[in-house]
Write a structure and sequence with these properties.
The protein is α+β, with helices and mostly antiparallel strands. It has eleven helices and 24 strands. The strands form six sheets. It has a seven-stranded mixed beta sheet, with no helix packed on it. Helix 3 packs antiparallel against helix 4. InterPro entries: C2_dom, C2_domain_sf, Endo/exonu/phosph_ase_sf, IP5, IPPc.
Length: 662
């Protein structure tokens, strides 16, 4: 690619397999107001220019908060910004209160467009852009009284969207229609429209994004009530995006209204499976609202079913990397807040902001406390907010806080990586966007580099050169403090069993552990390996080991990207079984010291791994699981001889699922 004045022109080359994926997660509560081009420009980098964004940021990741073993330790920190950051590959926009009424008059739209062009010419959006914005405001003040019919239609349309409605524009996003009104001929847009066209705000956002990011294509565009998610990918990479799924869950009034809730999308880029979650949680200060926010997060993960095997695994654990952003509404609550009047507490927090006591403010942040207590989003990580709180501010540039609200870090970005993939991701910048002046929130954005996932070759015809297959024996399996799943009338307990399931790196579920029926369906070896059910027990121990036989792999490299799940399930006699939670286990991690190759002394090495992990469902802990997993590559003859010598062939038996119990 050629570079002119720091901006890329022409077609960029395709990335190498080892080149990192450059990703930006952006969250904005738009305050139900139409953003100007300059406001959007203060949030979304000009044509995805990561280099320029990093050169200007005041908030690169500080060295002292980067773990020693993190790949970002030597990446982008204070005084260490690379010259070749280039363009972002993915830009994820999570928006709340994102519906707004569009100004219908052409001259106002022209002024907004001029404002956008002025901002693009000078990213600092100086005096000229500000003057144009003032002109827009003056023009809006001059507008005539609304037509009552138009106002009524607008109210009904907005009401329906706010209640429960959703709109998936994903298949329409490559052709952005003009903003038009029904009954108005092309070229006569100055005429007063008879009624308001629904979803004009979507068209406005598309237009602004197209002007701001011409080198990108929209691959996800989903609206639920007032919540919106748009995912842009660099156009050269669009054909590499696969497996797109989107769903949403409402958590507003009665758990029906869509003014609150979340949207989740999943996709795969360069063999790496991502989940993106954007949410708008319960508002207001106070303990009960804090509890409701934690519940909202779990409900969103439960209700929005996307990704492979979503019946069993929520989006936070069925991807290689999951990201959560949004107006999460967690507040700053000082330790002695109970001994203060509301006004005193707000004044104290504002004083801390003026003195830039970021560490103390983060210590008082409800979300940070919830993560430390494991009360929500277990396993997720967020960087400290070493910048001014983003809520609640005047709709203008900078930070002027509204006196009746406690300044708080309501707008956030978090992430979680699958077991064994934690070191593949590096946060490089986490910052607010103070120039976004059309909302009472300041947006935030967090940039990452992600090492692409290596995917193994899993195929049924695969066999190792030595004829050995991979086996694992799970022993000393037990759970503690499992969640009660049964009604008190049924005993107020749970009837747990553990089913072992597997996802390959490419998201396939029935390649490694699933057992198909034999010829003519006569074989009983069908389904997933599992333990027996233990009735009425929240702290079960299974004495019988479980054998896992992995098919379709011939080497250690074939296991790359695959995850085994110890899925704890509650048995129900009269209804479908309920998932208590799952424990993801990286398959390569438990096989790193063994090989199917012959050894010099003819021995067959094994690897023992101790597992002790929380049982997770919807980001919450529902118990704890411990076990020992012993893995080995053996031939069928070696396996049978090993079993015979250990327990005697006469003691071998099989359970209902065809799993060998030793």
């Amino acid at each position: 690619a050629t570079v002119v004045d720091g901006a890329h022109t022409g077609k960029m080359s395709q990335p190498d397999d080892d080149d990192p994926i450059k990703l930006l997660i952006c969250s904005c509560n738009m305050g139900n107001a139409e953003p100007t081009g300059s406001a959007l420009g203060g949030w979304v980098p000009n044509d995805g220019d990561l280099s320029s964004m990093l050169e200007k940021t005041l908030y690169p990741v500080p060295k002292e908060i980067v773990p020693e073993d993190s790949p970002s330790k030597g990446a982008i920190t204070f005084g260490n910004v690379p010259d070749d950051a280039g363009k972002l590959d993915l830009i994820v926009l999570g928006m709340q209160e994102s519906t707004f009424e569009v100004e219908g008059k052409k001259k106002n739209k022209t002024l907004v467009r001029q404002n956008s062009e002025a901002m693009d010419a000078n990213d600092d959006a100086g005096e000229s852009a500000g003057t144009l914005r003032d002109s827009v405001i003056k023009e809006k003040k001059k507008k005539k009284k609304k037509n009552p019919i138009k106002k009524a239609v607008s109210s009904v349309t907005g009401g329906v969207r706010t209640l429960t409605g959703s709109r998936d524009n994903t298949k329409e996003t490559f052709a952005v229609p003009d903003i038009r009104f029904p009954g108005v001929e092309k070229g006569k847009e100055d005429n007063e429209p008879s009624i308001l066209t629904p979803f004009q705000d979507t068209h406005v956002l598309h237009r602004l994004l197209k002007e701001r990011c011409p080198s990108y294509s929209i691959v996800v565009d989903y609206l639920r009530g007032e919540m919106r998610m748009i995912v842009l990918v660099r156009t050269e990479l669009k054909d590499q995006v696969t497996g797109i799924e989107v769903d949403a869950e409402n958590t507003g009034l009665g758990r029906v209204f869509a003014n609150k809730g979340g949207i989740i999308s999943t996709l795969t880029l360069r063999k790496t499976r991502f989940s993106f979650m954007s949410a708008h949680l319960t508002a207001h200060e106070g303990g009960k609202h804090y509890i409701n926010r934690n519940k909202d997060l779990a409900e969103i993960l439960w209700g929005a079913k996307v990704g492979p095997m979503s019946k069993y695994f929520d989006a936070s654990i069925n991807s290689h990397h999951a990201f959560f952003c949004g107006d999460l509404n967690y507040r700053v609550v000082l330790p002695n807040a109970d001994n203060m009047e509301g006004a005193e507490h707000r004044e104290t927090v504002r004083g801390m902001v003026e003195r830039e006591e970021w560490r103390a403010l983060n210590d008082a942040d409800e979300l940070g406390q919830a993560l430390r207590k494991k009360e929500c989003l277990n396993g997720f990580v967020t960087l400290p907010c070493l910048f001014p709180p983003t809520f609640k501010v005047m709709r203008q540039g900078g930070y002027e806080y509204i006196e009746k609200r406690t300044p708080s870090y309501t707008d956030r970005v978090l992430w979680r990586s699958a077991d064994g993939f934690e070191s593949n991701i590096s946060p490089i910048c986490y910052e607010p966007c103070p120039d976004f002046d059309t909302s009472d929130h300041k947006p935030v954005r967090c940039a990452f580099t992600v090492k692409p996932t290596k995917i193994g070759n899993v195929a049924l015809e695969n066999t190792s050169a030595t004829g050995r297959k991979l086996y694992a024996v799970v022993s000393k399996l037990s759970c503690t403090d499992l969640t009660i799943m049964d009604n008190e009338l049924l005993g107020g307990s749970s009837d747990p069993y553990v089913m072992f399931m597997c996802l390959t790196g490419d998201g396939e579920s029935k390649k490694l552990l699933w057992r198909n029926s034999g010829e003519n369906g006569k074989s009983k070896k069908v389904g997933w390996p599992r333990t027996k059910t233990i009735m009425q027990e929240l702290n079960p121990t299974w004495r019988d080991p479980v054998l896992l036989e992995f098919g379709g792999v011939a080497s250690y490299d074939d296991l790359a990207g695959s995850i085994v799940y110890a899925n704890v399930i509650d048995y129900d006699m009269n209804s479908g079984d309920d998932v208590i939670g799952a424990v993801p286990i990286n398959l390569q991690r438990i096989c790193s010291k063994i090989s199917p190759d012959d050894t010099d002394d003819g021995s067959r090495p094994t690897q023992k791994t101790q597992i002790s992990k929380p049982v997770l469902r919807n980001g919450q802990v529902h118990g704890h699981l411990t076990c020992t997993i012993e893995t080995a590559w053996v031939t069928q003859q070696e396996f049978e001889e090993s079993v015979a010598s250990a327990i005697g062939a006469s003691k071998r038996k099989k359970d209902k699922s065809g799993c060998l119990i030793m």
